[in-house]
Amino acid sequence: MASSIAPPAAGATTTPAPLPLKAIAPWALFAGVLLLVLLYFVGAEQGATSLLSGSDVHEWLHDGRHLLGFPCH
Prior knowledge:
3 helices
């Protein structure tokens, strides 16, 4: 079976509805905090400001540190 879709009428345009800032702000804040936490764990955890003891976090993120240019040893 074939179905056909009528082409849009000439000159007809649709514009997306704008998103209000109040709808975006909580998600932007959440993403920003999440990225800062990720940056901390990749860049600073197991250093002078270590929150977790042991070397597990360091070993899990070791290659990522070098890839992003963070010195770790």
